[in-house]
Amino acid sequence: MSDITMRPYEGAEDLRRMQELAQAVWGRGGRCHVGELAWDRFQHGGREAEWPTMLWEREGRTIAWAWVRLPGGLQFVAPDDLADEVLDWFHEVTAGDRLATTILDTETGLAGVLTRRGYRRAQDASFLLRMSRGLEGLPEVETPPGFTVRSLRGDEDVPGRVAAHRSAFHPSRVTEESYRRVMRAWPYRRELDCVVEAPDGRLVSYCLAWLDPDNRVGQFEPVGTSREFQRLGLARAACLYAMHRLRAEGAEEAMVYARGDEAHPVPAKLYGSLGFRAGARTVTYTRSR
After folding, report:
1. What is the dihedral of CA 137, 248, 195, 264, to 10 degrees?
2. E strand or H helix at 75, and its extent?
3. Which of 24, 97, 153, 173 has most Cβ atoms within 10 angstroms of its Cβ?
């Protein structure tokens, strides 16, 4: 592998390279959608020092990448024959007593590498279900009287959009500044940033959809409802509206990662009621230093 070089992440252009690799492997059971990578990288500001990130390249093309969340978390996309090198780097840059990484239960090759390197599947960890559905035969969007669902209009909606997120995911580090950074990231499309407006004009529920145009798959990330407006069917309306918008933009499938463990059953029930079906699930592997 002497023709492979590695270098640290340098900014948004490198995130695009990471997304391109995620797109390339998606059809072979890839784990990471281009949308979640954009959301995760830009939803919070000032965290780059906590996130050592490395790219492996061959002839200028990214063939693997690793994103560390200090003190001991790893997200990576790599072929099985590069996984050992990725783990070597991960072990060097972290100082935590507990190391952890999460993959899909269908990634049996990576599971074998992790097991050989001393990682063990965590039996008590929370997990996510990968849920998906096609975009044919969508029902019409319905909202309670006085509520409307629409796409984000632009910068004037950012304060309300952020307020809704911070209420749904309290406490949250998302700010108006960081959300504008999300909006500047590829592949954000304002038409896919779907919100529910209350009778008083407040934005109270939302579904941010991201389209991978190559694979024609849209992902929901995130979905939420302000605490005082929950259990009114608003998130359902936002998600259904997002699916109509995704289809109009050329998507053939929608997917979402939803908690599958008993601690948080509501999201999976919501998506199930919208026709999503569970496929692979995440599994977390851990080891001590």
Report:
1. 50
2. strand 73-77
3. 24
Residue (of 79, 83, 75) closest to 53 by Cα position: 75
- Cβ neighbours around 219 below 10 Å, total: 24
The structural domains of the chain, ordered by start, are: 4-96 (3.40.630.30), 136-251 (3.40.630.30)
Quick: pLDDT tens for 205-264: 999 999 999 999 999 999 999 999 999 999 999 999 999 999 999 999 999 999 999 999
DSSP H helix total and E strand total for the chain = 8, 13
Question: What is the torsional sign of CA 116, 119, 125, 127?
Answer: negative
Distances (CA, A) of 100 to 68, 75, 87, 95: 10, 9, 11, 12
Helix axes 108-116, 83-93, angle to 10 degrees: 50
Cα distances (angstroms) measured from residue 159 to each of 96, 153, 176, 241: 37, 12, 6, 21
Q: How far apart (Å, rounded) are the C-alpha atoms in residues 31 and 27?
A: 10
Biggest CA-to-CA distance, the chain: 64
Apex 178 CA angle, 177 and 180, nearest 5: 65
